[in-house]
Every structure is written in structure tokens, then in C-alpha cells.
Design goal:
4-stranded antiparallel β-sheet
């Protein structure tokens, strides 16, 4: 009896730890693309990882958010029109834009909130932004600029129509920047005159501050970093990269690296006093942050034969190396942070094997990078629906394992793609396409034997 009781206590503590180590927003708990759970496998089982459950969902680029034993996701149930992906034009769709909540153990739908929307954006296949979940609240931003705050039980607390209230134009590819919670505020990229960035009281929706102007809000989520002894809100938008006081919106510094057509997408990444930014048409480079006070300057700019230009997915900085998927070369590239020198590249994680083997490859090959510090490995979700375990270093890309876990359902040109970021939590990965969301077990064997990751436990 004592052994059984001890096992139950241990199992309960492990499951509690899994839930504590959640993925409550875009890019994880700290919005840094790192997965810190213990008890994660280092290699796939011979038969491949087990899919614990599948749940039907609609169209969308929005990734899952996982916390408190629940999964939150946005999607679009199309009622009129069809998805036509043309980067140069906007298509019209009508449907129900939904915020969904599933039980993370079983995949069962617990609740949904739906509102009828008329889309007019390029690549119209659903909402883009991952919900942000914090302290009993869910903040969800739709493609046409509708910001909704709900309780985690599905009750609407407040709503904002950013286009109507702030004269915020809808960007070509729709509103995409996941809301950022900071203390008693939620901060959003909005757009409109004097309201590029707006902070709202998270409980009431009342505006707390607004700052800057730009042609639109761009697509890049906000982040807060600590440097020079203060918290700095970092924004990458159509007018450049800026640092702000997150409490007031006051501008600390401005680096005028302007993205082509306002296409600020991949989030700038910080390591030490360096901040790397990138975009289309070889626009980007390394910013050096002032160590004495909030300030910044350009350290180096990328060129045609150096640097890397991630767009669809945010890069990862580690041990003086930038690891990022280049938008033009459709390859994962390793680059020296201090100089911009390219060290190596590989198409293997970004394109299907058949397409990667071609002499000329299409642009926009995509892979989402997540680093596991405890195992020293990267988890990579490629656009072909492959989940990859890899080791990245100055010497190159080494693939440890690969499993095809979900089918790509969207399109880019003539190829099928999966362009929705995954969530890593509860010793699992949660992945969606335009038809289903799945949970894949990634617990190491001894944790699996305790029942962790079992939807019936």
C-alpha cells in the first residue's frame, strides 16, 4: 500500500509539473522559443511517437496555447468563398472566426466562442495570432483586428474593434501579432494615427497608453527584454525597430531598419547585448544595445553573401550563432553573430525531401525552431508536417530523428505547406493544420510508464 501511495503521489507531482510548465502564449512561457520541461525523450521510439488524440478544427495559422490542462486555439469555419493564396492580392471570405478551448488530456472540446467575420486579406485561410492566456484570461486577436478578452471558462469580458476604434488599417496579410500581457495590461500592435502600439487595462479593456504612428501595425509580436537595468518593450514595425518603457509607452530608442512594404514579421531575438532583426529583400542586421542606459545602434547590416533572412519563422540565438530559416534560400542557416558570416546551411528541415533535392527550390521554405536547453537539442516542425529532433552547432546541422506526424493542408505556390507554429507542453507537442489538432507524446520512457502523457490518466 505504501508503494502504491508513493507511486500515486509521484505521478500526481509529475503531472502537476507538466501543467506548470505550459506554453501559454506564442513562443512559449517566456516568449523565447525555449522548452524547459524535464523528462523529454532524446530519440523517437522505433515505431515513431504516439499521437494521443486528434480533434477537428477549422482553417488557421494560429498556433495552440497550452496551460492549466487546456488547449486554446483560433480558427475559421468558412461559409462563403474559398482560400486562394496570392501574395499580391487580397481575397474575400466569410465565416465564423472562433476561439476554441479543448481539454489537453483528451482533446475534448470544452467551449467555443464564435463571431461572424468578413475577411479581406492575402492568404485568407484563418486567424494568425496565437491566443495569450494568463491568470484566468484569454486574449485573442482576429485577422481583421478584433481583439477579444474572455475568461478561461469562455465568458466574454470585453472586446475591441481596432479598425473602428483606432482607424487601424488591416495589413495585407491580416493582424498577426499575438497580444502581450505585462502586469495589469495587455499590449497590442494596433496601427492607426498615434496608435501603432496600444496598452489596455487587462480587466476592463480601457486604454492605458498609446504611442507612434505607422502605415499599419505590421505582423511582429511584441516582447519585453531586460537590459541596462530596465525593462524594454521591443517592437519591429513598418517604421523600424524601437525600444519603449512598457509602463508608459515612452520611446527609449529607434533604429530605422525599415522592412519592405511594412512586412515586419519574424520577432527580433536578443542574446547578451545583441538584437538580431531580419526581413524580406535582405533587410536586417545586428543591433547593439547600450549597456549603460536604454539605447541602441546598428552593429552590422546583412548583405547578399552573409547573414540570414528569416521571415515566416523566428530565429534562435545560441552560443554566438544565429540559427534561422532564410526566406530566399529556403534553408536553415548557421551564422556568426558578431560578423554575419555564414557557417553552413541545410534544406532538410525546411522542405520535403523531393523538393529539397531540386537544383532550384521555391522561396518561403519554413521550419519552426524550438530549443530544449536540458537536452541540448532543437525540436523542429517542418512545413511538410515532419517533427524533427536535431543538434545545431557551429559545425552544422545533425538530424537525430524525424517523424511525419501531420499532413500539410495549406499551399504556397504548387506545394502543400504547414505554416502554423506548434506548442510544447505536458511532455507533448500540440500541432494543428486546417483540419485537425493533434497531441503527440514526447515523454521519455520512464515518465511514460508513470502514466504521464496518457489522456486517460
Amino acid at each position: 500500500m505504501n508503494r502504491l501511495f508513493s507511486l500515486l503521489i509521484l505521478t500526481g507531482s509529475v503531472i502537476s509539473t507538466c501543467w506548470a510548465e505550459g506554453w501559454p502564449q506564442w513562443m512559449g512561457e517566456k516568449r523565447d522559443g525555449a522548452w524547459r520541461e524535464e523528462g523529454i525523450l532524446r530519440q523517437f521510439p522505433e515505431a515513431g511517437p504516439e499521437v494521443l488524440w486528434r480533434a477537428p478544427v477549422g482553417h488557421g495559422y494560429s498556433g495552440p496555447a497550452v496551460t492549466g490542462g487546456r488547449v486554446y486555439l483560433m480558427d475559421l469555419v468558412i461559409e462563403e468563398g474559398k482560400v486562394v493564396n496570392d501574395a499580391g492580392s487580397q481575397a474575400r471570405l466569410t465565416g465564423s472566426e472562433r476561439i476554441l478551448c479543448h481539454d489537453a488530456m483528451s482533446g475534448k472540446l470544452l467551449w467555443s466562442h464564435a463571431e461572424r467575420r468578413e475577411y479581406e486579406v492575402s492568404y485568407p485561410g484563418g486567424p494568425r495570432a496565437t491566443p495569450t492566456v494568463d491568470d484566468g484570461q484569454v486574449f485573442a486577436l482576429g485577422a481583421m483586428g478584433h481583439l477579444t478578452c474572455l475568461s478561461t471558462k469562455g465568458m466574454v469580458q470585453w472586446k475591441k474593434d481596432l479598425g473602428r476604434e483606432y482607424e487601424a488599417p488591416v495589413p495585407m496579410w491580416g493582424h498577426s501579432a499575438s497580444p502581450l500581457v505585462h502586469g495589469d495590461m495587455v499590449i497590442c500592435m494596433v496601427g492607426g494615427p498615434g496608435s501603432l502600439i496600444v496598452a489596455f487595462d487587462r480587466r476592463t479593456g480601457k486604454e492605458r497608453w498609446r504611442t507612434l504612428s505607422a502605415r499599419h501595425g505590421g505582423y511582429c509580436p511584441l516582447q519585453i527584454v531586460e537590459h541596462a537595468g530596465v525593462s524594454q518593450l521591443i517592437a519591429w514595425h513598418p517604421e523600424g525597430v524601437t525600444g519603449h518603457n512598457p509602463e508608459t509607452g515612452k520611446l527609449y530608442w529607434n533604429v530605422p531598419i525599415k522592412p519592405t512594404n511594412g512586412s515586419s514579421i519574424a520577432m527580433p531575438r536578443k542574446l547578451g547585448n545583441k538584437l538580431f532583426v531580419s526581413g524580406y529583400n535582405r533587410i536586417g542586421g545586428m543591433i547593439e544595445l547600450d549597456d549603460e542606459r536604454p539605447g541602441a545602434r546598428i552593429l552590422w547590416r546583412s548583405g547578399p553573401k552573409e547573414g540570414v533572412y528569416p521571415v515566416n519563422s523566428t530565429p534562435y540565438l545560441l552560443d554566438g550563432i544565429i540559427y534561422g530559416v532564410d526566406v530566399d534560400r529556403s534553408a536553415l542557416i548557421g551564422v556568426e553573430m558578431n560578423s554575419g558570416k555564414r557557417l553552413w546551411e541545410s534544406r532538410a528541415p525546411c522542405l520535403s525531401k523531393e523538393i529539397a533535392a531540386r537544383k532550384r527550390v521555391p522561396r518561403y521554405g519554413t521550419a519552426f525552431l524550438t530549443y530544449h536547453p536540458g537536452n541540448g537539442q532543437f525540436w523542429i516542425l517542418g512545413e511538410m508536417g515532419d517533427l524533427i529532433i536535431a543538434e545545431l552547432s557551429r559545425q552544422g546541422y545533425r538530424e537525430v530523428g524525424r517523424a511525419h506526424v501531420i499532413g500539410p493542408t495549406n499551399t504556397s505556390g504548387s506545394r502543400k505547406v504547414l505554416w502554423s507554429p506548434p506548442a510544447f507542453a505536458m511532455r507533448s507537442v500540440f500541432i494543428r493544420n486546417d483540419r485537425e489538432m493533434i497531441r503527440v507524446d514526447l515523454a521519455e520512457q520512464k515518465k511514460r510508464d508513470l502514466g504521464v502523457g496518457d489522456p486517460e490518466s
